Amino acid sequence: MNTNKVITISQLTKDFPVGESYFRALENINLEIEEGEFTGFVGPSGSGKTTLLNIIGSLDKPTSGTAVILGNDVSKLNTKESAALRNLHIGFIFQSYNLLPIYTVFENVEFALLLQKKSKEERYKAVMESLEWVGLTDKKDSRPTQLSGGESQRVAIARAMVKHPTIVLADEPSANLDAENSHHILQTMAQLNKELNTTFIFATHDEKVMQYLQKIITLKDGRIESEYNK
Length: 230
Prior knowledge:
The protein is α/β, with parallel strands linked by helices. Strand 9 and strand 10 (about 225-230) form a beta hairpin.
């Protein structure tokens, strides 16, 4: 069994200032996630799921404790180092797709590679491979406004996967989709997880997503309430 840990979180607490006081979003989080897991943070709104996902993605830092992502303690990274970690190793999928309307599908996916200084030929090959994974090579010249919600989310998956990240973070990726499209994108992500050994971590309260998860980590009021493998 693979025991290569990609995430190690110890005694993590996260506070947000509120006036002269603070709101504790996460408290005493201890967690390990191994390479190739297909796991999710589950809980109601306000339970701390997105905050924890943002810290893992080096978009935020803990108030105390440590979050070591691929050997990097996010508390000790400067802005440039955090950006490099995200650009090289972490893919993001959001519920709002975040596609750039002035660019084609191809250009939206390619955008993730522009900071990696790859040649035009390398970028083309990687983008077309990624679009093939999600079944959208025929839409490469379309604009986001010409896509359905399901197609837009598949483009977002392609954009996240195009750089072959070690970790993909998906925040409520099925929230704006109907049941059929939700299952389609989840099947796509589960297949990529299996074929590429990419670690997928979801933040969700969607039962449809939970059906696909191999491990569920339940959060309540900023604490881990339970953790179990299916």
